[in-house]
Amino acid sequence: MTTHKRFVALAATGALLAGLLGLATVTATPALAASTPTTPMWSTQLDFDSGGAAWSESYFAGLHADGLTTAELNMPWGTIEPSVGTFSFTIWDQELANAAAAGIQLIPVFWQSGWSGSPAPWITDFEKTSSGTAGSAPDWWNSTEQSDYFTYVEDTIQNSLAQPGGYGGAILDYGYLDAQWDISGSGGGYTADDVAEFQNVYLPDTYGTIATFNTDEGTSYTSFSQVPAEASGQSLFGVFQAFRAWSVEQTYGRLTAAVRNITASTPLYYYYGGGFGNVTNYANNPDTFFKLAKQYNVTVIADSASNTGMTLAMASLARAYGVKMAEEWTAPSSNSELAAYAVQWLDSYGMTFPQAGGEDFFIHDGTAKDTVGFPIYTSWLPTLKSLSGSYPQQKAALYIDVSQGYGNMSGGSLSGGGVQTTAANIWDAFQSGLAIVTSQEVANGAISLSSFSAVLPLNGTDATVTAYKNAGGTVLTSSSQLPQYATAYATLTSSGTVQVVPDLSSSGTSAQVTLANITTGTAYDSTITFNPTGLGLAAGTYHVVNASGTAVPQSAVSGGICTQANLSAATLTEWSVVPGAAPSGTPGCTGSTSPTLAASPTTLSFGDVKVGSTSSAQTVTITNSGGTAATISGLSAPSGFTETNTCGSSLAAGAKCTASVAFSPTAAQAYTGNLTVSSNATNSTLTVALTGTGATSSTNLALNQPITGSSVQQTYVAKNADDGNVDTYWESSDGTWPSTLTVDLGSTQTLADTVIDLPPLTAWQTRTQTLSILGSANDSTWTTIAASATYTWNPSTGNTVTIDFPSGTAYRYVRANFTANSVQNGAQVSEWQIFG
Is 60 helix (H, G, I), strand (E, B) or coil? Predict the structure, then answer.
């Protein structure tokens, strides 16, 4: 019998901070519910003081005149509490009074470390990485230093509440800035105090007994004190990662509860910095903050406006948890991009409705980001304040497995934040109200996948997605399938230039639409077609007006309202979709006066194709959205690819043509290049990215391809079966027969044989499994390739089985159908290799 490691997603409970694995419980004073909902913040961050003096009343009056309602002051712990238990509030109290007199409320930003003046100079013990490198954050689980920080926050808030009118709530942080366990990009948690908390509190509360731990983790320790705090890449790192995630929820929960016991009615905020790429290193899990925010009526401030995918994810979480969300703008590294980033940040605000919690400008300090970005912000504030309604969320979702952040190290990869970039690219090409759902969001009970008609996993198929599919849900394998289940609310002639964000009125009969040209130097002079269904509008006739209420140039077309848009680089425009037909005499939608070509799709991937053979052709549609004909000089494909087309030498305004591309590799190597369309259009060189790999009989066609299992036992997911690592494996649920494993090879491939491996370890006793192999061209109609037979896996001969296929076998989808296992009551595969 094999050993199974346990990973249990954090589930929502009524108790304060239910333990990360659903077992440990923290005792703390119950939180007091806030008496009124948090109101939107229209804010900017400031340094604590102005060169050592309090910010003046006239300075705050200037912010008020700009339309701001609050200002966030970055609090220096060492200035407020220069020695343990001795507080100096002189400057702070004066600032509270000056702000109140000017009609501004102040929000202190409490940093435990990372900002000038924090931690206090008398803090002496600091966080460490697994290699012993010290950081600047106080030792997380040093009980004295933790208590000192809590006292500093609580006493400062109590003092602030005693001042008349100037206090506007607080932003709570713990650890390094808003990155928790961060130490110069590495993760902390390895001080003696941290390890003691891990061994003496977390492990007993989570596992109960060392015997249970040994059974779950495949170890043989005699006490919890022997369990090591392992680093990334070591076998027990998942256990320690779960502890670090638990620590964040514990500590933030206790700190928030303490503050809510002081004041139930004033606003509180959490910063969430970074993105999914930080989740593992920093235990910086978005769901942790939204779960706590729901419990304590806290607004989450998301520093994510530079990545639309992250903004969509955070806004989706805010709606699912019923939590207010504000946005923070942090400037890009290049000053040339400041204006473009600012308009993208402000345009994205509409995605947060109906949970919109305001905007936060970082930072009003006189630098370039301030002189460029702040005027854009303040000039757009009246429009921001006028927005209402709801972002029109569709019944199709992008799914992100975040379980690595909670200790499941075999979960979907979050490395480098690739999932949020993928989500951003999908949305940019298909501007629709897509939801983004995380695995922890489902585990916490904030949402159910059953509420969606289709789900597209972005980083692998986990047990939740498999269960959704088994219950009849539709699991997509490509973003190109999304239009079958969701409707774009805006269609543009080209992507990457304009971002469109609507908010549907509560009556469902109108929508406000914010348009932003998010480039640094590319104007958009073309059409935008609005689809009333995608906007969520009730059935009826509609037209589009600008901010002054004047109808923009438009025409009713199949699928919506075609509008004429002319947006300069780095600018914002506010339109509305309102009931009724456009007034008589409204100019029509003509598109750009110059020819403009666009291709769909913009990339073609052919996967692995056997050397000397030719793949099936894939089609690219080329459209001229301009007002005049385009003269086409020619189409060309790079080495390894061939193309034929219907475009001719001229493409009329509004017309389409097609190019058919095939892949014919002549060598076993990766092929990349572009299908190039040369013309006199405004984009004179139009390209479509092409990729493919020449495969030989030694090429594993299944390696890292999309793969699904009919069921999964604990964390032994299907992806383990084609990850190139024979030490990881898929296992189906106990007693579930037949059990299937299905791989999508990406395109139809000529197949010669398959090799099915189990881990080559002597601990795996010899066993037999009974299975058949099937093939399909469409993942629905299946043909038997190899009839059911019983095969033997013997560790002494490598624990491997080879099954030959009949000559001429060619399929895109391949399925292994298991009906018996002589040792385990479920199918098992550590590596499934398929060769051509």
Answer: helix
Q: Indicate the helix (H) or strand (E) that contains 368.
A: helix 368-386
DSSP letters along 524-578, please?
EEEEEEE-HHHHTPPSS-EEEEETTSPBPSEEEETTEEEEEEEE-TTEEEEEEEE
User: What's the whole-number mean pLDDT along residues 814-826?
Assistant: 93
**Count of residues in the chain:** 836
Q: How far is CA 200 from CA 178, 252, 672, in A?
A: 27, 20, 54
Question: What are the structure tokens assigned to 9, written together?
Answer: 């997603």
Least Cα distance to 311 among 333, 294, 328, 293 occurs for 328
- The arrangement of strands across the sheet holding 630-636 comes to 603-610, 685-695, 670-679, 630-636, 650-651
Determine the pLDDT at residue 142. Answer: 98
Mean per-residue pLDDT, 78-89 = 97
Q: For residue range 522-561, list pLDDT tens digits in order.
A: 999 999 999 999 999 999 999 999 999 999 999 999 889 9
CA dihedral 302, 304, 310, 312 (to 10 degrees): 70
C-alpha–C-alpha distance, residues 66 and 361, integer Å: 13
Model pLDDT, residue 627: 66
Environment class of 555 (CB within 10 Å of its CB; exposed 0-12, middle 13-18, buried 19+): middle
Residue 713: CB atoms within 10 Å: 23
Distance between CA atoms of residues 803 and 375, nearest Å:
68
DSSP sequence for 384-413: HHH--SB----SEEEEE--GGGGT-TTS--
What 3-state DSSP class applies to 173?
coil
Q: How far is CA 472 from CA 364, 455, 468, 469, 485, in A?
A: 52, 12, 7, 5, 15
- Within a 10 A sphere around the Cβ of 259, how many other Cβ atoms? 25
> Between the CA atoms of 782, 787, 788 and 793, what dihedral angle is there, to the nearest 10 degrees?
-110
CB environment 177-187: b (16+ within 10 A), e (fewer): bbbbbbbeebb
What are the pLDDT digits (tens) for 415-460? 877 899 999 999 999 999 999 999 999 999 999 999 999 999 999 9
Q: pTM of the entire structure?
A: 0.72
Helices in 297-367 by DSSP H: which ranges? 308-321, 338-348
Q: Give the angle subtended at the CA of 744 by the CAs of 742 and 746, to the nearest 5°.
A: 175
Tokens of 682: 């405004």
For 189-243, give the DSSP string.
--SHHHHHHIIIIIHHHHHSSHHHHHHHHT---SSGGGS--PPTTSTTHHHHHHH
Torsion angle defined by CA atoms of residues 717, 718, 724 and 729, in that order, rounded to the nearest 10 degrees: 50
pLDDT at 697: 67
- Report the phi/psi class of residue 398: left, alpha or beta, with left for phi > 0 and alpha for psi in -120 to 50: beta
pLDDT of 35 strictly over 60:
no
278, amino acid identity: N
Cβ neighbours of residue 49 closer than 8 Å, sequence gap 6 or more: 55, 91, 95
* Distance in Å from the first CA to the final CA of the chain: 34
pLDDT tens string 226-239 = 999 999 989 999 99
Q: What span, in angstroms and rounded, lies between the C-alpha atoms of 607 and 701?
A: 8
Residue 497 in contact with residue 524, Cβ under 8 Å?
yes
Model confidence over 200-216: pLDDT tens digits? Answer: 999 999 999 999 999 99
CA distance 140 to 23: 22
Task: Tell me how crowded residue 541 is: count the other CB atoms within 10 A of its CB.
Answer: 11
In angstroms, rounded to a whole number, what is the distance separating the alpha carbons of residues 157 and 89?
A: 11
> Which pLDDT band, with edges at 50, 70 and 90, does 691 fall under?
confident
Whether 641 and 671 have beta carbons less than 8 Å apart is answered as yes
Tens digit of pLDDT for each residue in 307-339?
899 999 999 999 999 999 999 998 888 899 999
Q: Which two tokens stand for residue 673?
A: 């290049």
| Confidence bin at 14 (pLDDT 50/70/90) | very low
519's CB contacts (< 8 A; 6+ apart) are 340, 496, 497, 569, 570
